[in-house]
Amino acid sequence: MRGRARRVRGLLAVALVVGLAGCPGPDPEARVVNDRDTMTQRQRDSVTATLPVPGAGVLGDAMDAADAAAARAAQHDSLAGGGG
User: Does the residue 74 lie in any domain?
Assistant: First the structure.
C-alpha cells in the first residue's frame, strides 16, 4: 500500500507541474493599465480607515499621528533654516 500512495503522490505532483506550466504568465499590458488605475498607499489607507472592521479606526489615528509628526518636522526645519 505504501508504494501505491507514493505513486499517486508522484502523479499528483507531475500533474500540478504540468498544469502550472500551461498557465500563461502575467500580461504586461494589463500591468500598465492596472498601475495607472491604482490608488496610492495613503489613499488606500484612508479608505481602509473608514471601513467598519475591527481596528480600522486605528489606521486613521496612525495617519493623523504621522501627519502631525511631519508638520512638526517641517516646522523645526523652517526654524533651523533647513528649508530646502
Answer: yes
